[in-house]
Amino acid sequence: MLNSRSWIFAFTALALLSGSASARTATQDVPCPDSHDPGVVYRTFYLSQDTSQNQFTEVQTVLRNLLQRARINGVSTEQAIGICGTPAELDLAQRIVSDMDHPQAAETSWRLTYTFTRAGVSHKATLVIAPNEWGSLKEGNRVPIVTGASQGSDQVQYIDTGLNLSAKVDDSGGSLRLSTNVEQSATPELKPSSAAGDPVLGDTELKTTAFITPGKSIVLGTLNLPSGGQEEVSVTAEAVP
Questions:
Q1: How many CB atoms sit inside 10 A of residue 48's CB?
Q2: pLDDT on residue 188
Q3: How far is it, in rounded angstroms, from Cα 53 to Cα 121?
Q4: To 5 degrees, how large is the angle CA 17–CA 98–CA 42?
Q5: Residue 105 confidence (pLDDT)
């Protein structure tokens, strides 16, 4: 003997055989199987064929939370959800499905072009990142520094110098927010009359968050360079198709 869930699944399958799911949004109401209440009827709802598995599961979860007395079963391969409930519950389910059943917007990656300007001379660095995730870029050298000696051999430590970029673009709130960290370091030099193990590394850092408009350059700030002088930092964000 079929239980209630099996009856709903069987009815959903029967409804699928009656026509194309993509050509309709819901079937007509019929008496609900395994129910002695004449006020309870059955309806199959069809979601868009572009609906992802996550969206399909989310729709079912919302329906079950809001229609706790209704019996609900889904067939994800056919984007169909069968519900036994009162006409009022089914009408509410129809509104919920209509509100939630829309293609998921494709996420956009971003190309960030940083421009560094010093004394009228500019150079650029480009970083492509996924939405809402951190990305990084390094340009420069790894410089060996002798920090001491042991058993007749020098002890060497490597230090990264040059440009170090990290950035994240958050576009989930309807606006574009850039969080970024820009670091410039200079080749270390030993202090006069200093002993081994006492290298000097010049370093400057710009850390900021700013709202940006795609295609428009924005000045993030100014770096005081370790080698002397100042460097203006600006950035432009462009969507990557």
A1: 15
A2: 52
A3: 52
A4: 45
A5: 60
Beta-carbon neighbour count of residue 47 at 10 Å?
23
pLDDT at 31: 85
Do 164 and 143 contact (CB within 8 A), yes or no? no
- Please give the C-alpha separations between residue 141 and each of 53, 163, 232, in angstroms, as whole numbers: 46, 9, 22
Name the DSSP letter for residue 26: B
pLDDT at 141 (0 to 100): 82
Return the SS3 of 171.
coil
| Single-letter amino acid, residue 103 | P
Two tokens, residue 205: 């850092």
* Phi (first) and psi of residue 50, to 5 degrees: -90, 0
- Owner of token pair 């951190």: 134
Can you read off the two tokens belonging to residue 36?
A: 């002695």
Pair 167, 208: CB distance under 8 Å: no
**Maximum distance among all Cα pairs of the chain, rounded to whole angstroms:** 98
Q: Under DSSP, is residue 11 helix (H, G, I), strand (E, B) or coil?
A: helix
Angle at 147 between CA 142 and CA 150, to 5 degrees: 125
The pLDDT score that the predictor gives to residue 176 is 87
Tell me what pLDDT residue 15 has: 47
Low-confidence ranges of the chain (pLDDT < 70): 1-26, 49-50, 103-107, 172-174, 187-200
* Euclidean distance between CA atoms 139 and 129, whole angstroms: 17
Helix/strand/coil percentages in the chain, nearest 5 = 20, 45, 35
> For residue 206, what pLDDT is reported?
94
Q: Tokens representing 22?
A: 């993509």
Give the single-character DSSP code of 54.
H
User: What spatial distance separates the first Cα and last Cα of the chain, rounded to whole Å?
Assistant: 54
